[in-house]
Write a structure and sequence with these properties.
Elements: E1 2-6, E2 9-15, H1 18-25, E3 30-32, E4 41-45, H2 52-66, H3 69-79
């Protein structure tokens, strides 16, 4: 996950699978992350409070996609009881 600030405000970027990326890019606030968007990265500009439930899920999925296997296994053990 990457966050940043510019003259447009705050943005948050995360890696997703291609299917999720395409779905998100259809929404107004999302855009392909410059330079790394072709690798599945997507960004959201100035997320609102109502965006955070969905973003929490997307960020968790991005982490599990990139984390070492032993940490994914640990996550699954802790959250699937």
């Amino acid at each position: 996950m990457i966050s940043g600030e510019s003259e447009k405000g705050f943005s948050l970027s995360f890696k997703s699978d291609r299917e999720t990326q395409e779905l998100l890019l259809q929404k107004e606030k999302f855009f392909k992350t410059p330079y790394i968007g072709h690798h599945g990265w997507v960004s959201i500009q100035n997320p609102d409070r109502e965006d955070w439930d969905d973003l929490t899920y997307l960020i968790k999925e991005a982490y599990l996609r990139a984390a070492p296997k032993r940490l994914v296994k640990k996550w699954n053990e802790l959250h699937n009881k």
